[in-house]
Specification:
alpha/beta, Rossmann fold, 8-stranded mixed sheet, 32 helices, globular, 2-oxoglutarate dehydrogenase E1 component, DH_E1
């Protein structure tokens, strides 16, 4: 017995489904037809099974699909529920009416599988039985039968089956195919049905609009051909085959402006990037040519290739000026996406635009990268979360159907479409044939309208081709001979459209005239976007000039007056009576109140909180995000107090840092999704668009930054030397060897040290509460914006030795080097024979060992800023001990990790003649730390003892 038959027979045996329950059956079935996901699984299984019961001629009534439902309705009539009398002919007609609704639903659901999307026409139409009338038992005799179509938007309440099929095919199987039925939002589904079915997915453009589309196609093709002939063999990652994309960008910019959008931030990889720069953003062609000719000014330490460059401009639209920003992007393709989203969020916050009405993110993808790179999944996961939403993103796929040339189509993905990943956020997708530029423009119009209406992501998937190789030195026919035979025979999208317009009577020479005009503009190096506004400046524009060209050696005025400290501390530690904190949290805040009054030393959590409080009170917004940022991974922060008596999950929280002063700047703390790469990219983008906000990303454990290494390598470390983009992002990376195994010990200090050059970042490892206070304040109060990497501790969060007296907050500043703190040793500085230099929590282990052994001839200094290395402060610290013969660098990390290999030459440079430099730490290791606690303790004991022992192994003499 088949599964279908068993479900069918089980239904017939359930008499409780008939009689008085028939209205329930009818309603459930209608809900199923509208949205199968809206009914319980058991009902959906039954109704699904009914669809596959074979259709017959009606001679055997028990074999008619959906007969049980029809019989249920008949039974309802017998019970007095309706006056309709169902005869056998009526039952068959009822079956057909139901089948018509199923047919409509099928086209809406999977009609795009039959759409004419491929310009190269390489694949046959797949077999999809549910799109065939015969699947539902219809024959040619049914073609003129009139059915109810009132749930469609074809303009008629009743239509012959033939006309309905034609309308469905035109709407869902033309050169534009839509996917939207998987959304659970009924309003959105009806919106798409109305938009598509009312025009049958066919644009109605006037002659001027068609000429504009042809103009943009001409520009797209013209630039590529000009570059191809003038700069033979040079890489440019041509857009040829995907020229309709430029028409889509033109539509997007102009329509967005008309809808009130004032800024558009664009992220895209290198395919077609030069075309966008010139033909969408209005970069002067002569400036692009100068880059090809290698005559452009080289004003950056490193620079980057031309197809990674960003650009900004202002263009005129019907709604007013629109500022366009193309984000700088490395070759890591999709990694720019969260960066763009973060930049957009910063601009939204600056404009007090929480819905994204004035700022629009646009992300342009390649087909293989969009489906293949995990950062897209992470970025989509951020889309509707409170701390990261940007009001919906318009995604455009330049789908050249080939990925990276050598991939076999069978190996490109495991999904039907490269866009299937967006179903995770129920984003609709419009698949469109790139050879129909009018359909491409229509799809872009609809996508923008949807985004502005529903504030959700939406995708335009332009199926096109790539005329040349991955780059212009590639020969794709080596691995794709069949595809490139078809491409060689293709006349080009512009030519096809020009011929179409000529046939419509819009001018036999229109296409040729446009080609000549564009070529003349190229030869003259003129603008190809009209009009570009050269003197416009928005009131929301950010001036970065105060932060450029400054030296890191300026400490900044980071202390705060005692009266201000006490005022802020009282505000910070006062919890309203209406909030019932957990008893452990209450104790934390009671202790902090005592710290604020100066009754006890200040611990790490209070020092950090007071830094944030003083900043927001002074007008500097603070944005802190990470996987446990509200509470703190090690429960030291408690920036968000949860009312223990609250009754709803989304109410009953209190954030003290949002209540420390009148008219204070915002304090935002976000418990992020479980993501590092996308979240860090987002925060980098945010910080790069707002130099006046302290933007902090905190890793749950320092080594979790591994998952975001591409952001660190290609943006944080090198963005300024490659692109001239300053950025003040702060990273907090918990670091410290506590016997917790390899994954919870190291934030990989050595990786940041390896990336450190050109004063590109600040790498610090503070060891006291006052130090974290001052370094966080320093990041904002001085006119310097460089990434700040803070290696934060774990055990020191509660170590009394790491607390600081109140006086260290009301005077002083961040100390890049903390000299010896033992007065007795300093009084006899000439007796010191050895100086131990270290960084981080190992300092406290060394001091403890020195005290236990009553050592008096060893000084210990802390390097709190390991990069840029503080030569002046370090030299002053060791100069106090002229008779010291040994300098020892001691670290927790293995010898091939940590700071040792990167800091030794800096120490050596500042040593006195005759002094020797040695190392004490763990032996080199392939793993950051051991996983056995007893072995950890043995290693820790040995490295601390080694710091006081006779030098051995590698010794460097001055």
């Amino acid at each position: 017995m088949s599964d279908t038959t068993s479900v069918y027979q089980a239904y017939q045996g359930n008499t409780y489904l008939f009689g008085g329950n028939a209205p329930y059956v009818e309603e459930m079935y209608e809900n199923y037809l509208a949205n199968p996901g809206s009914v319980p699984d058991t009902w959906r299984e039954y109704f699904d099974a009914l669809q596959h019961v074979p259709a017959v001629d009606g001679s055997n009534a028990r074999d008619v699909p959906h007969l049980p439902v029809i019989n249920a309705f008949a039974e309802r009539a017998k019970q007095g529920g309706t006056k309709v009398v169902v005869a056998s002919a009526d039952a068959e007609m009822g079956r057909k009416r139901t089948a018509v609704q199923q047919l409509i639903a099928a086209y809406r659901n999977v009609g795009q599988r039959w759409a004419d999307l491929d310009p190269l026409k390489r694949t046959e139409r797949p077999a999809i039985p549910e799109l065939e009338p015969s699947f539902y038992g219809f024959t040619d005799a049914d073609q003129e039968t009139v059915f109810d179509t009132s749930n469609t938007f074809f303009g008629k309440d009743k239509m012959p089956l033939r006309e309905l099929l034609n309308a469905l095919h035109e709407t869902y199987c033309g050169t534009l195919g839509a996917e939207y039925m998987y959304t659970t939002n009924q309003a959105q589904k009806r919106w798409w049905q109305q938009k598509l079915e009312s025009i049958r997915s066919k644009p109605q453009f006037n002659a001027d609009r068609k000429r504009q589309i042809l103009d943009r196609l001409t520009a797209a093709e013209g630039l590529e051909r000009f570059l191809h002939t003038k700069y033979v063999g040079q890489k440019r990652f041509s857009l040829e085959g995907g020229e309709s994309f430029i028409a889509a960008m033109d539509e997007l910019i102009q329509s967005a402006g008309a809808k009130g959008v004032q800024e558009i931030v664009i992220g895209m990889a290198h395919r077609g990037r030069l075309n966008v720069l010139v033909n969408s953003l209005g970069k002067m062609p002569k400036d692009l040519f100068a880059e090809f000719d290698h005559t452009a000014p080289e004003d950056l330490p490193a620079g980057d290739v031309k197809y990674h460059q960003g650009f900004s401009s202002d263009v005129s639209t019907a709604g007013g000026p629109v500022h366009l920003s193309l984000a700088f992007n490395p070759s890591h393709l999709e990694i720019v996406n969260p960066v763009v989203e973060g930049s957009v969020r910063a601009r939204m916050d600056r404009r007090a635009d929480p819905k994204g009405s004035q700022v629009l993110p646009v992300l342009v993808h390649g087909d293989a990268a969009f489906g293949g790179q995990g950062v897209n999944q992470e970025t989509l996961a951020l889309a509707q979360t409170r701390g990261y939403t940007t009001g919906g993103t318009v995604h455009i796929i330049i789908n050249n159907q080939i990925g990276f040339t050598t991939s076999d189509p069978r190996d490109m993905r495991s999904t039907v479409y490269c866009t299937d990943i967006v179903k995770m956020v129920e984003a609709p997708v419009l698949h469109v044939n790139g050879d129909d530029p009018e359909a491409v423009v229509l799809a872009t119009q609809l996508a923008l309208e949807f985004r502005m209406e529903f504030r959700q992501d939406v995708v335009v998937d332009i199926t096109c081709f790539r005329k040349l190789g991955h780059n212009e030195q590639d020969t794709p026919a080596l691995t794709q001979p069949l595809m490139y035979k078809k491409i060689a025979a293709h006349p080009g999208t512009r030519k096809l459209y020009a011929d179409k317009l000529a046939a419509q009577g819009l001018g036999a020479t229109l296409g040729d005239d446009m080609v000549k005009a564009y070529r003349a503009a190229m030869d003259a190096g003129k603008h190809t976007v009209d009009p570009v506004l050269t003197n416009f400046k928005s009131k929301y524009a950010v001036d970065w000039s105060p932060f450029l060209g400054k030296k890191w050696t300026d400490a900044g005025d980071t202390a705060i007056p005692l009266t201000e400290w006490k005022r802020l501390a009282e505000k910070l530690t006062t919890i309203p009576d209406s909030v019932a904190p957990h008893q452990l949290v209450k104790k934390v805040y009671d202790d902090r109140a005592a710290m604020g009054r100066g009754e006890v030393n200040v611990d790490w959590g209070m020092g950090e909180s007071m830094a944030f409080a003083s900043l927001v009170a002074s007008g500097y917004p603070v944005r802190l995000s990470g996987e446990d940022s509200g509470r703190g991974t090690f429960t030291h922060r408690h920036a968000v107090i949860h009312d223990q008596n609250r009754e709803k999950w989304d109410t009953g929280t209190y954030v003290p840092l949002q209540n420390v002063a009148e008219n204070q700047a915002p304090f935002v703390v976000i418990d992020s999704i479980l993501s590092e790469e996308a979240v860090l990219g987002f925060e980098y983008g945010y910080a790069g668009s707002d130099p006046n906000t302290l933007v902090v990303w905190e890793a749950q454990f320092g080594d979790f930054a591994n998952g975001a290494q591409v952001v660190i390598d290609q943006f944080i470390a090198s963005g300024e030397v490659k692109w001239g983009r300053a950025n003040g992002l702060t990273l907090m990376l918990p670091h410290g060897y506590e016997g917790q195994g390899p994954e919870h010990s190291s934030a990989r200090l050595e990786r940041f040290m390896q990336l450190a050059a050109d004063a590109n970042m600040q790498i610090v490892q503070p060891t006291t509460a006052s130090q974290i206070f001052h370094v966080l304040r320093r990041q904002m109060v001085r006119d310097l914006r460089k990434p700040l990497i803070i290696f934060t501790p774990k055990s020191l969060l509660r170590n009394k030795d790491a607390t600081s007296p109140l006086a260290e907050f009301t005077k002083g500043s961040f100390q890049t080097v903390i000299p010896e703190q033992n007065e007795a040793i300093d009084k006899k500085a000439d007796k010191v024979k050895r100086v131990i230099a270290c960084s981080g929590k190992v300092y406290y282990d060394l001091v403890k060992k020195r005290t236990e052994n009553e050592v008096t001839d060893v000084a210990i200094i802390r390097v709190e800023q390991v990069y840029p290395f503080p030569h002046k402060a370090f030299a002053a610290a060791i100069k106090k001990y002229p008779n010291a013969t040994d300098i020892v660098w001691c670290q927790d990390e293995p010898q091939n990790q940590g700071a040792w290999f990167f800091i030794q030459h800096n120490i050596h440079e500042n040593m006195l003649d005759g002094q020797k430099l040695g190392y004490s730490g763990r032996a080199a290791s392939a793993s950051p730390a051991v996983g056995y606690s007893h072995l950890h303790q043995e290693q820790q004991k040995a490295l601390v003892e080694g710091a006081f022992a006779k030098l051995k192994g590698f010794v460097l003499t001055k």
